[in-house]
Specification:
This protein is mainly beta. The protein has one helix and eleven strands. A hairpin with a 6-residue loop joins strand 10 and strand 11.
Amino acid sequence: KFRADFLQTIYPERQTEPTAGGTATRSQPKYDSVLYIFGRFTTEQTATGNAVPFYLQETIGGSDIDNIATLRGFQDYRFRAPNLFVIQTQYERRLLPAAKSDSTSTVRKVAGALGVMGFYDAGEVAVKASDLSFSNLRQSFGFGLTFWSGERVWFRAYVGLGSGEGLHNFVGITDASTQLLHP
């Protein structure tokens, strides 16, 4: 089995902060706005006459056994084969900047914890790796709400669309230990 994962995190917005006692400024990422680009390629080979058992094959569609979301417009475990390719983009944006003091109003603190997200997923599975191609990709897209604490998203609620098989909803806690590996 060979598996390659790719994750690029981009902070498209920048902010300036004073430095050196206010005499200069520096530009740094604004962590309230994040674009993730994630990709995965998996291929499994067996000896002639053997096959990878279906229960050992990776899946795409909804969430997999490790609760990693792929093709979020489809039901969980929708597509299964020994070879797969997935690419995902996801954008998350906090609605208001995080509250920086205890004197901030409760409404502002709550609004600072809310955000929005949008995503696009494409992927394919195949029995042979040579059958994977960009011409037969399954696609889905969606949008939702995020709940932030500090510079991380801890809770997501979204709806996946575009599968032709109805809506696929997700509401759940984000595992902070895997958030940087899988958006």
